[in-house]
Amino acid sequence: MPPTSASRARLSGDAVARFARDLAALADPDDHLLIAVSGGPDSVALLLLAHAARGDRCSAATVDHGLRPESASEAAWVASLCAARGIPHATLSGPLPDRAGRTANLSARARALRYRLLAERADAIGARHIATAHHADDQAETLIMRLNRGAGVAGLAGVRATSGRIVRPLLGWRHAELVALCAAQGIDPVDDPSNVSDRYDRARLRKNLAAIDWLDIDRVAASAAAMGDADDAIGWMVDRLAAELCHRDTAGVTLDVPDDLPFELRRRLVERCVTAIDAMASLRGGALAAAVRTLESGRPAMLCDVLAQPAHAGGTGRQWRFTMAPPRRSA
Predict the structure, then answer these.
(1) Distances (CA, A) of 134 to 92, 153, 169, 221, 314
(2) Please, what is the Cα angle at 159 between 158 and 161, to 5 degrees?
(3) pLDDT in tens, 299-314
(4) Residue 101 and residue 115: Cα distance in Å, rounded?
(5) Helices of type H across the chain
(6) Which residue, 70, 102, 170, 238, could crosslink 135 as a Cys pair with Cβ 3.0–4.6 Å?
């Protein structure tokens, strides 16, 4: 049940001030904020803190994916919680896309639907930003999962504090803090069984991490933030190199490749050239690195529907040419 008005007074002023500082680093104080609320303790805590910090400059939305029988009642619970506090709320739903990029993975499709519906709702109410409840424990789980997959700098940056219009002001907060905040308000949040189901890699990892007493989640999150800064620095350099080294014409893109250009910059410039030709190209890190190695050996490589091949180069360095691959002949 939603909390009584008396229980609302227990929201800590220190917590609100801390949240207001975290949010101000990501969004202008005058911006209207759309809060994505699933009904779990993290998103409910985000809702309470945002409403306390922003007042009528925040609204809420819940996406009902329709994937579990309980989802409709959970969305209704969030709606009643918002109504009790005078927070505008909308329940959003729609058909799942057949694919998200190049994958038919259910989680990816649900995520694509969720962010599309939230963006449409934000546009409709004039909200500049969409806030989600990713926190420090999420960050640690993400970093460890990506380490286990051999991720590079960009992957090890983890969950970013900003991504387009998405802001994540709780990345410096622990899950236990958010649970305690809800409890202090007399709120019993929604319990999503997928968070503890061994069917999901993240849930299994979460259980294992809970048994490790020496892991400092805050330090892990700080490392992810540092990797994010490094990724931004590399991206800044790639922007400038692309303007100098990538040459677009009507048929494709030519990349000048200096001999002393570090591999990571080559890799990112190749990615930039491919997506300039095929904006829908979905490039996996391992495949992209392998393609760069192939080009370095003087052989052509395929990246999605883009053909990359060595081109004539004069003087020092070399050139790589990127064009759409010819249509495949049917059998």
Answers:
(1) 20, 20, 8, 12, 50
(2) 130
(3) 999 998 999 999 865 5
(4) 14
(5) 5-8, 13-24, 41-54, 71-85, 106-125, 136-148, 153-156, 175-184, 201-210, 217-245, 263-277, 285-296
(6) 170
Question: Where exactly are the structural domains of the chain?
Answer: 5-225, 249-324
Question: 253 has which bridge partners?
Answer: 248, 322
pLDDT in tens, 102-161: 677 888 888 999 999 999 999 999 999 999 999 999 999 999 999 988 888 999 999 999
**What is the CA angle 176-50-157, rounded to 5?**
60
Q: Give the SS3 label for residue 153.
A: helix
- Residue 273 phi/psi, 5-degree rounding, is -65, -40
For strands 58-63 and 162-163, give the pairing: unpaired
- Token pair, residue 119, equals 């963006």
Give buried/exposed letters for 108-124 (b at 16+ CB in 10 A, else e): ebbebbbbebbbebbee
The most distant pair of C-alpha atoms in the chain lies apart, rounded to whole Å, by 77
Predicted TM-score (pTM) of this structure: 0.85
Rg (alpha carbons) of the chain, rounded to whole number: 23
Place of tokens 């609204």: 59
Do 168 and 132 touch, CB atoms closer than 8 A? yes
Cα distance between residue 297 and residue 310, in whole Å? 9
d(C-alpha 140, C-alpha 151), whole Å: 14
Residue 87 has pLDDT above 70, yes or no: yes
In this structure, are residues 47 and 77 in contact, taking their beta carbons and an 8 Å threshold? Answer: no
Structural contact between residues 270 and 320, judged by C-beta atoms closer than 8 angstroms = yes
Buried b (16+ CB within 10 A) or exposed e, 53-91: bbeeebbbbbbbbeeeeebeebbebbbebbeebebebbb
- In the three-class reduction of DSSP (H, G, I as helix; E, B as strand; rest coil), residue 25 is classed as coil
Q: By C-alpha distance, which of 121, 124, 125, 110 is closest to 68?
A: 110
CATH of 5-225, one of 3.30.750.24, 2.40.420.20, 3.40.50.620, 3.30.2280.10: 3.40.50.620
